[in-house]
Design a protein that fits this description.
With 234 residues, this protein is mainly alpha-helical. It has helices spanning 3-29, 41-48, 52-64, 83-95, 101-122, 125-143, 149-162, 166-182, 193-209, 213-223, 225-232; strands at 68-71, 75-78.
């Protein structure tokens, strides 16, 4: 990763932590109770002098940890937890260390063996359509010799969505950007492996389509052979 890119990544993470801290300060300053509404994203972005997308990312992170709750067309509200617990949780979030890449990959393996199995049990026609679209986009890029890391992960995100487990899906959404950013840096997979991955993806898709959970899990595990070698030196 270029130094400039790395610097921007650090700055973005520091900015995100600062926004979370400022949201905590507003909750305390206004004595907001569970169920009380936060100022709008626009108002917060103006007050913090940051972009609305930065505010939205901070809110989404706090929502993931159960501290805030966003209701479409209504706004963002303080979750049903006490102020002392809320402050303690936010302090813990601000102290969280950034996971190393190997930990992210290991987490991805554990998650996707579960999501593949659940997707085979719960997938809908709409889920299959999204998986097919991502898989076709991946195949086209590989055949044309183009980088297909993002399309690869979009296929796996479609599987996570099809699992019907919102928590697992949220975890995948959180770790995926970091994996995309660092995939080439750590040389996890050789470029020549992309061709064989097309066939592996097809087998995973077929198992999910035919609602064969054990086969879907087995095909996913086989697909992750290189990742197993990277994480566990086997």
């Amino acid at each position: 990763m270029k130094l400039e890119t790395r610097t921007k990544t650090i700055e973005n993470k520091d900015a995100g932590r600062a926004i979370i801290g400022q949201i905590r300060d507003i909750i305390n300053l206004k004595n907001l109770e569970p169920g009380d509404k936060l100022p709008s994203e626009r108002m917060l972005s103006e007050r913090f002098e940051v972009t609305r997308s930065s505010v939205r990312e901070a809110i989404q992170k706090l929502e993931f940890y159960g501290i805030l709750k966003s209701i479409p067309q209504s706004g963002t509200f303080v979750a049903n937890i006490g102020v002392i617990a809320l402050n303690g949780m936010i302090d813990d979030i601000l102290k969280l260390e950034d996971p190393d890449f190997k930990s992210l990959v290991e987490t991805r393996i554990l998650l996707e063996l579960k999501t593949a199995r659940l997707a085979a049990l719960r997938r809908t026609d709409s889920d299959l359509k999204k998986m097919r679209q991502a898989l076709d986009a991946y195949t086209e890029k590989v055949i044309n010799g183009k980088d297909a890391v993002q399309e690869d992960l979009l296929f796996h995100l479609a599987i996570a969505k099809a699992s019907g487990n919102s928590t697992m899906n949220n975890f995948m959404l959180i770790i995926t950007p970091e994996i995309i950013t660092n995939f080439e840096k750590y040389h996890v997979c050789d470029s020549g492996m992309s061709q064989s991955a097309i066939e592996e993806h097809e087998k995973i898709y077929l198992a999910i389509e035919q609602q064969k959970p054990q086969e879907a899990k087995a095909m996913m595990k086989k697909h992750f052979k290189a990742l197993y070698q990277y994480c566990y030196n086997i």
